[in-house]
Design brief:
The protein is mainly α. The protein is built from 15 helices and no strands. The radius of gyration is 30 Å and the shape is globular.
Length: 476
């Protein structure tokens, strides 16, 4: 009895029954369980946020390394532009149209091979994987550039020509693989910003061409023939090692990585508007391929300037392009019409071609200042055309009913890089032949006329597509 009284005296709720006490305990347990669940949800959300933050940081690092690698590939390819034509022509037995065309073919064979191998690379990319393709192609470019340092020791014209063409062919295959894989990885990392992503990619490529020309011209003028190639091979090898260390074999951290490239390379060629976009890429890049080998020769004969001085003008042109491309891409991602941008770009490029010589139809004397002004117009014009190409292609796929246009990024990248390579490869061949026949000024003027005509084609094609399938991106 005493123990019972003692127990009752220690009961904090003596007036409550046993059932009420059990209900309160059950309620407390429910509250505790709910609290634990809220804590678990909060912890899970924090983990998701941390994982996403780490994924974004890793993706940005990979994008940065990929752009650096594209920069060094472009540097390696363009080192020879300011001086190699003059060196090659000195080995030629004559100074006729055939020799000029052969030298132009040395410049263009790499990009023509890029065009031919792009479909193969696009097909094999999902099997090989981006890391293997990028690292192997980057190392191959480095090796080819290094071997180019020894071609000046070959005195026989036919052997010199064969060796140069072989090395440029190998370089072209490797560059095709590098560009297609880079485009796929970059668009996969930033699927909602195709404009600025393509702008950054083109800026790294053209900026690399600019730096390569300045570096090549400077080292050739103040060192010797082999040093530009030694420098290019070293830079390319360093970027290859960096990319191999940073780029993982598993690309699941990239957003949109689960979206496979389901459309075939040739299936997209059945869309009529894509042909206009691809030909626009061809014409826009043809001016780059034409100007780079021919303007330094024209500037030396017309203005009596050194290789480093003429390459400096090309450098300013490329820097303007590299600055303009991401800016244009930014506005394209925010609603600027890609087709209107493309038409304006061809108009500016046509004016630039008329002024770079300048054309003999205008009462203007040739000056380096005039050529410099024309290069600025050409830079902005080509940036407008090429930067708007991939957003317009994705937009066209959506207009034709593709629900996930970014899923076709490998095929789109392959088609676009193929068209750009064909234009860049055709430019030196046709441009060198025309320059040897009618002169630099008349050849540039003729290309400007082609650009003016193509502006009308782009505008008419956009209007026709608007009428046929109701795509109003021209006015968007």
């Amino acid at each position: 009895m005493e123990e019972e009284d003692e127990t009752k005296s220690h009961d904090p709720y003596p007036s409550r029954s046993g059932s009420e006490s059990g209900q309160e305990m059950s309620h407390a347990e429910t509250i505790g369980t709910s609290t634990h669940r809220h804590v678990d949800v909060r912890n899970n959300l924090q983990e998701v946020v941390l994982r996403r933050a780490k994924s974004k940081t890793k993706s940005k690092l990979i994008v940065a390394c990929m752009l650096v690698n594209n920069l060094t590939v472009a540097i390696s390819v363009s080192l020879m532009m300011p001086f190699f034509a003059a060196v090659a022509l000195r080995k030629s037995p004559d100074d006729g149209v055939g020799s000029h065309t052969a030298v132009g073919f040395i410049f263009s064979i790499g990009t023509l091979v890029e065009f031919l191998f792009t479909p193969v690379v696009t097909k094999e990319l999902p099997k090989a994987g981006s890391k293997l393709m990028v690292v192997l192609s980057s190392f191959t470019v480095s090796a080819a550039v290094f071997l180019f340092s020894f071609v000046n020791g070959v005195q026989r014209w036919s052997a010199f020509l064969a060796l140069c063409l072989t090395l440029r062919l190998v370089q072209g295959v490797a560059t095709a693989a590098n560009k297609v894989a880079a485009f796929s990885v970059l668009i996969g990392a930033m699927p909602q910003s195709t404009g600025i992503t393509n702008g950054a990619l083109q800026a790294s490529i053209v900026g690399g061409y600019a730096l390569g020309m300045v570096l090549g011209g400077f080292l050739y003028d103040y060192a010797e023939f082999a040093w530009p190639f030694f420098a290019g091979a070293g830079l390319q090898l360093a970027s290859t090692v960096l990319l191999a260390a940073v780029l993982p074999s598993d690309e699941s951290h990239l957003s949109a990585s689960k979206i496979a490239s389901s459309a075939g390379f040739y299936t997209l060629l059945c869309l009529p508007w894509l042909w206009i976009v691809l030909l626009s890429c061809f014409f826009a890049n043809a001016i780059m391929g034409y100007i780079e080998p021919t303007f330094p020769v024209y500037a030396r004969s017309q203005f009596d300037v050194r290789s480093s001085h003429s390459s400096l003008v090309l450098f300013i042109w490329a820097i303007v392009y590299s600055i303009a491309s991401p800016i244009i891409g930014y506005f394209l991602d925010r609603g600027l019409s890609a087709r209107f941008t493309m038409a304006v770009g061809f108009s500016l490029s046509g004016v630039g071609c008329q002024l770079v010589g300048p054309t003999e139809l205008l009462p203007i004397e040739p000056t380096m200042v005039g050529s410099f002004s024309a290069f600025i117009l050409l830079a902005i014009g080509t940036a407008l055309v090429i930067t708007s190409a991939s957003p317009d292609m994705f937009q066209t796929l959506e207009a034709y009913g593709c629900t996930h246009p970014v899923s076709q990024r490998a095929a789109v990248g392959g088609l676009m890089q193929g068209a750009l390579s064909l234009g860049y490869g055709t430019g030196p061949i046709v441009g060198s032949a025309l320059t040897a026949t009618i002169g630099f000024r008349s050849a540039a003027s003729l290309l400007g006329m082609v650009y003016f005509c193509w502006t009308a084609v782009v505008a008419a094609g956009a209007l026709l597509m608007w009428r046929c399938i109701g795509d109003r991106s021209w006015n968007s």
